[in-house]
Structure formats: structure tokens, C-alpha cells
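Format notes (please read before filing issues)

Several people have asked whether sequences and C-alpha cells are stored in separate files. They are not. Every record keeps both together, in the order shown below: the sequence lines, then the C-alpha cell lines. Line labels are part of the format and must not be stripped during preprocessing.
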Amino acid sequence: MNNLTRKIAAVAMAFTVLGTGAAVTNTIAPKSNNTITAYAIGGDQNYQYYTKPKCDRGWNYGRYVGVSSGTGVYWIQAMLNKWYRNSRDFEALVVDGKYGQKTEEAVKRFQRYNGLTADGIFGPNTYAKAKSLGYTRGYEPTY
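Then the structure lines:
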């Protein structure tokens, strides 16, 4: 099996195992002819199907500050899964609507990467950055 065939097989394997919501982050073609490997992130990446957080109105989302569960947190978690889809060292978040330690760590990493204060709070500045990167879809929140 040549390298291209192995890479295609690895991508097909990742989608078969993880489903069509998976994003393959890297494939490697091992030296043996009977091994294929793919790194992929699963997790719900369909943030557009959730209600947006209320950050435009000054709301904060965090473990110990502001809102720690609910509809806006689902959007945040799925958006982060989508943003991190090409990262080999990110474990997909469970989109459960609870702002736990893993969500906080993912928010801090997003903030650091984008030049924001890495406080782990998804507030107006972090939301504005996400919107500037094109994460604008989702249901409008009710107030």
C-alpha cells in the first residue's frame, strides 16, 4: 500500500469510527504495509445549532464567575471543538452545557492564542474575538 492510499484509508477509518462530525487532524503513513493511523478530534462541533451566549449584553460565563451552565455554554463548548479541530493535542470537549475545568482550560488556551487575557472567563472580549474569527452562527438568545 503506498503512502497516499494509507492516508486515504486513515481518513476513512477516522470518519467511520468517529462519525462525520470528526475532523482528521493528522495522518501518518507508517513504514509497515499493514498499519494505518489517523489522529482526529471528535466531539460536537455544530455550534450553530445552539443558542449563542449573552456576552453582547455583558454576561460572563465561567466556573466561578457568571453563568456556569445552560444554553450559552453548549454554544461555547461546540465552538471551541470547531476551533480546535486541527489541533493534535486537544481532547474534544463533551458538549454538556456545564462550564467545568476542561471548558475553562480550553477557553484559556483560546484566549492565549488570540492575545487576550487568559482568565478562563468567556465574556464580551472573548466572544468578540470568536465573532471576529467567523463564529457568528447560532440561535439568538432571549433576554
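For reference, the curators noted about this record: The mean pLDDT is 81. The chain has four helices and two strands.
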